[in-house]
Design brief:
This protein has helices spanning about 1-15, 105-110, 135-140; strands at about 20-30, 40-45, 50-55, 60-70, 70-80, 85-90, 95-100, 125-130, 145, 160, 165. The chain is of the alpha+beta class. The protein folds into two domains: about 20-100, Immunoglobulin-like; about 105-165, no CATH class.
Length: about 170
């Protein structure tokens, strides 16, 4: 009888160790308009065992993993238009997350004013965005490259006069 009870308890423990779930929502750090909805590929990797789980969010960013073990995990979110986002999370029972990710911008990668084409900063000036006066533009045409009033999340910061390149 003791042996049966021990086997029952062990089997109950092994069943309950896999019944946890992880669910939540991936959100853009910017306010996404309703027509900008995207899907994300999500990988959950248990740190000490290398066991991996995969999921895809729906178009609203909702995701769910079922039947996962308690433990420490690396949570990775992939989408070609977003930075690779990696988080460390701990699962101990049913867990819910709200994850905020940011879009990839090629201009954020460049931290210097060195032109990627001519490899010089000699003819490089900052880009000026925004509404200004004609008088201001005439006085500062050597100091800035004027790029207009429309702004977005991903805008270049520098302009090379030699190569006529925004970067």
């Amino acid at each position: 009888m003791k042996r049966f009870f021990l086997i029952f308890v062990l089997s109950l423990f092994s069943i309950t160790s896999y019944t946890q779930s992880l669910s939540g929502k991936v959100r853009d750090t910017l306010n996404i308009r309703k027509y900008d909805r995207v899907q994300f590929e999500i990988k959950l990797k248990k740190i000490n065992s290398e066991k991996e789980y995969f999921s895809t969010s729906d178009m609203d960013g909702n995701f769910r993993f079922s039947n996962i073990e308690n433990g420490d995990y690396q949570f990775t979110i992939n989408n070609e238009f977003y930075d690779k986002n990696i988080f460390l999370i701990k699962i101990n029972g049913d867990t819910s997350l709200n994850i905020f990710v940011k879009k990839f911008c090629q201009y954020h990668e460049n931290k210097t004013s060195v032109c990627p084409k001519c490899k010089s900063s000699e003819k490089v000036v900052p880009i000026f965005y925004g509404l200004t006066t004609l008088d201001f533009m005439k006085k500062n045409k050597k100091k800035y490259h004027f790029a207009g009033c429309e702004l977005s999340y991903c805008m270049p910061n520098w302009y090379c006069k030699r190569d006529r390149l925004e970067f």
